[in-house]
Amino acid sequence: MSHPLPTTPAHRANSDLPSAVSAAEERFIAANPKSMRRAEEAARSLPGGNTRTVLHYTPFPVTIVSGEGAVLTDLDGHLYTDFLGEFTAGLYGHSNPILKKAISEALASGVVLGGPNPYEAQLSALICERFPSLDRVRFCNSGTEANLYAVSAARLFTGRDKVLVFRGGYHGGVFYFGEPLSPINAPFDFIVGRYNDIDGTGKLIEKEGKALAAILVEPMLGSGGAIPARRDFLQMLRDKAEQHGIVLIFDEVMTSRLAPGGLQEHHEVTPHMTALGKYLGGGMTFGAFGGRQDIMRRFNPYEADAVSHAGTFNNNVLSMAAGLTGLRDIYTPEAAQGLNAIGESLKADINRRAKKHGIPFQVTGTGSILAFHFQSGAIACAEDTWPHSAAERERLEGLRKLLHLDLLSAGFYVARRGFLSLSLPLTEDDYRAFADAVEEFMVVREPILSADAATVQI
């Protein structure tokens, strides 16, 4: 149950961004009274009615009550085709029968068992087989934890303190290097470089090399705008890390799904350690970190100098069973190749339509992880997408809000920032309808999208 985009001449004549956003918000509020009441009630016990910041948007988020396949239903009865895919964790959709069976069987055998279970050894073996950098792996509960342990392991292994990261990088709730830097980041000694800048980053590593414990990098910026790394950039990081005894960590929490063995396999650049998470838990809570045997041996309890890696739910049976079943039986190498090929086609289709209409708009990303940008021209790093003034920032936020509300109204669920993550249950008809809805937005909102496009450089 969706509400079509405004297509009357009166709406088309409205080329003022603030007015268009205001009208879209009014339509949204009128269509979602139950979600609005739920948001108001939740705010009595949760700050802002929210316990996961990325799910917040104004005027309030719709409350999702169920999911089936690739379709979500909200509290007011609206249906949405899900193009967010739980920020890459929802790879399998919302009701895969193979996963449901595995989870039900694990649940029937008992939870919180307080000991090793049969699933974890099988899942760890499969993950080590799939991802080239992993001699050994340890499980945890989120991508944030995975990166925290990977960085800590690198500092332990090298005896050094500093960590090189990149602007636009997101490695979890306490590892965010956007604009501005997060004030609640973990208190490591971070050096922040420019993504895809081979010369500048190379010089930075030469300057700081003896103090660097780790280089932490996403082989494609995920939350930072789905901006792929250049292969020669990643290879330079690997070469410099080898030269200076630095631990190169690939954060593949999101990107591990973009090829059978992650982007490290795709680019043929093998890091020393890898952080994993998201879909690898089969929809359950999950994180993992691993790498070379000589680094990971310190987590072996049989070693005399072992360090503790605790976590009540590190090997919880639901995550282990779902993760094993999903990776072994559903997201096979062939399935990974197929889904990511579809994502490349969707990206090309929408970009072709934007070019046809002469709209300053593009889709970036790789395979099944994509993002919208209200600009033309190449995007190589996060700074290429950051506004240069308060006016540009206000305009960009308004355009993102308008697109998001228009797509919700048309029955498509995406992130407010324009982030997309495809899932296996999506169909050819879904992809076609989604591309049509984005093109409809371009046509209906063309006066707004084109206004001052020549002078707005974001």
3D architecture notes:
The chain is of the alpha/beta class and 458 residues long. It has 15 helices and 16 strands. The chain has helices at 9-13, 17-31, 33-42, 97-108, 118-130, 143-158, 198-208, 231-244, 262-267, 293-296, 317-330, 333-357, 390-409, 428-444, 446-450; strands at 64-68, 71-74, 79-82, 136-140, 162-166, 189-193, 212-217, 220-221, 227-228, 247-251, 273-277, 287-291, 362-366, 369-373, 412-413, 419-421. The chain has a 7-stranded mixed sheet with strand order 4-12-11-10-7-5-6, with helices on both faces. A 4-stranded mixed sheet has the order 1-2-3-15. Strand 2 (71-74) and strand 3 (79-82) form a beta hairpin. Helix 2 runs parallel beside helix 13. The chain is globular and about 70 Å long.
Radius of gyration equals 22 Å
Helix residue percentage: 40-55%
Overall morphology:
globular
- What are the segments in which pLDDT stays under 50 over at least 5 consecutive residues? 1-13, 454-458
Biggest sheet record? 7 strands, mixed
- Could you report the average pLDDT, rounded to the nearest whole number? 95
Strand content: 5-15%
**Structural class of the secondary structure composition?**
alpha/beta
Number of strands: 16
Question: N-to-C terminal Cα separation, in Å?
Answer: 35 Å
Instruction: Please give the order of strands in the largest beta sheet.
Output: 4-12-11-10-7-5-6
Helices, by number, come to 15
Present the secondary structure layout:
Blueprint: H1 9-13, H2 17-31, H3 33-42, E1 64-68, E2 71-74, E3 79-82, H4 97-108, H5 118-130, E4 136-140, H6 143-158, E5 162-166, E6 189-193, H7 198-208, E7 212-217, E8 220-221, E9 227-228, H8 231-244, E10 247-251, H9 262-267, E11 273-277, E12 287-291, H10 293-296, H11 317-330, H12 333-357, E13 362-366, E14 369-373, H13 390-409, E15 412-413, E16 419-421, H14 428-444, H15 446-450
Parallel strand pairs: 3-15, 5-6, 5-7, 7-10, 10-11
Antiparallel strand pairs: 1-2, 2-3, 4-12, 8-9, 11-12, 13-14, 14-16
